[in-house]
From TrEMBL:
Keywords: Membrane, Transmembrane, Transmembrane helix. This is Uncharacterized protein. The chain crosses the membrane at residues 32-53, 73-97, 109-126, 146-167, 179-197. It comes from the Bacteria.
Length: 249
């Protein structure tokens, strides 16, 4: 396992330097985040949005923006980016693990999943998808016509993933599919509803609530993907730990 240890993919053994490790990912904490953290962030986002609607000075509005789910420069958005990155690393961990057991083409899907999640993390920070607009439908969703580009991409990726989803371990693939479905429902369906509402009624407080529901659903989906991957890693005796390099000296 020496080559895996160098990649920070290892069996869960007692750490000889426990103080060196800054953070070890745990399924338990991910469950807590899904059950308590995301609802709290959603309620806080609604409260901060209400403060902005009521109006306030520049400092108050800036502070409120840091906690609004659909603000790309907010703390919840940063959490979403981190979760996508972590899920990407967990997929890479699975690739290393299964490659040692058996070299098979199906393992390549773990690499592709890792790359897709990395691309999603970058897009979440750079908001590239907002520029993928289909002018034919731009009037329908008022600036959110990228959904008509996103749907065929999701369909193609879903079809290409069928062999991967049907391969063992089956339970893990079912859980990953659930998380991906929740995420896509938020990203495409709820955001589409928000776009239609914005066309008909504008960006009032109801639109804000729809946007919060969309972002909370996406956050739940990517969190569920992380939970499935963390549970699987724990069952295999694997762990992912973010460490302070200086602490190892």
């Amino acid at each position: 396992m020496s080559d895996l240890a160098e990649s920070d993919v290892r069996h869960s053994e007692p750490d000889e330097h426990p103080k060196a490790c800054a953070l070890q990912l745990s399924p338990r904490w991910m469950r807590y985040f899904i059950v308590f953290g995301i609802p709290a962030l959603a309620l806080l986002s609604v409260a901060m949005s209400a403060i902005k609607v009521e109006g306030g000075n520049f400092i108050v509005n800036e502070l409120a923006d840091r906690f609004i789910l659909n603000n790309e420069f907010s703390i919840p958005t940063l959490i979403s980016i981190v979760l996508m990155f972590v899920a990407s690393q967990l997929c890479a961990l699975n690739y290393l693990y299964y490659r040692r057991l058996m070299r098979a083409p199906i393992n390549t899907y773990w690499v592709l999943s890792s790359l897709i999640l990395l691309a999603m993390a970058y897009d979440e920070s750079a908001q590239i998808h907002e520029s993928l607009r289909w002018s034919l439908f731009d009037n329908i969703l008022n600036g959110q016509s990228w959904i008509f580009v996103g749907v065929p991409i999701v369909v193609v990726l879903g079809l290409l993933s069928i062999p991967f989803l049907l391969s063992p371990p089956r339970r893990l693939k079912v859980e990953l599919l659930k998380g991906a479905t929740i995420f896509v429902f938020g990203a495409l369906v709820i955001e589409g509803v928000g776009g239609l509402y914005k066309v008909g009624f504008g960006m009032d407080f109801v639109y804000v609530l729809i946007s919060v529901a969309e972002e909370a659903t996406e956050l739940t989906g990517i969190s569920y993907v992380n939970l499935a991957l963390l549970n699987h890693a724990a069952q295999k005796g694997l762990s992912v730990t973010f460490c302070d390099p200086a602490g190892r000296e």
